[in-house]
Design a protein that fits this description.
This protein is mainly β. Helices cover 14% and strands 44% of the residues. A 7-stranded antiparallel beta sheet has the order 3-2-6-9-10-5-4. The longest helix is centred in the first third of the chain and has 10 residues, at 9-18. The two termini are 29 Å apart.
Length: 167
């Protein structure tokens, strides 16, 4: 195999991660005023089962950042390929993310999207600020398991499902 050298670190990072598929999730929380807030994330991962921990990353300039900084609880929604529209909406204009009637208030008042493949109810344990971003570590408290669906992935700046492109 022949590799193409990339000497600029930012371009090397971008090029490398374009070739790495990531699962897509939606993170929701409440604003300090009790309104729903959330975003699409491709950085969610399990840290381990004993204790049950997960993590995700977020840009500190995002519209959800102020709410996340004050949130005690979050809901992590895993998505299947049937959730493409939800992933796109939660990554777009923050004023329209909860405009549809496809969510309800769940445990701790968290916004829960009913069609996710699963939802993890989590307590924020730690937020580590790193430059203009943050790593959020959460304790998984409970979960909701929905209907199985082929995974929704993000790869080469596109959403896809194993074996097929969705956009």
């Amino acid at each position: 195999m022949t590799f193409t050298p990339v000497t600029d670190p930012t371009e090397a990072l971008r090029a490398g991660f374009r070739l790495h598929a990531s699962g897509v999730s939606v993170i929701t929380m409440l604003t300090p005023e009790g309104k729903p807030a959330g975003f699409t994330a491709t950085s969610m991962t399990s840290l381990g089962a004993n204790p049950p921990l997960a993590s995700f990353n977020v840009a500190s300039g995002s519209s959800s950042w102020p709410s996340l900084c004050q949130a005690k609880y979050v809901a992590i929604h895993t998505l299947g390929d049937r959730n493409l529209e939800l992933a796109q909406r939660m990554a777009a204009d923050h004023t329209l993310r909860f405009a549809k009637d496809d969510w309800s208030s769940g445990e701790h008042g968290l916004p829960i999207f009913s069609d996710a493949t699963s939802v993890l109810i989590c307590e924020v344990r730690e937020i580590h600020n790193v430059e203009n971003n943050a790593v959020v570590i959460v304790d998984v408290l409970s979960g909701l398991v929905g209907e199985e669906a082929p995974a929704l992935l993000y790869y080469q700046r596109h959403y896809m499902s194993p074996g097929k492109s969705l956009n």
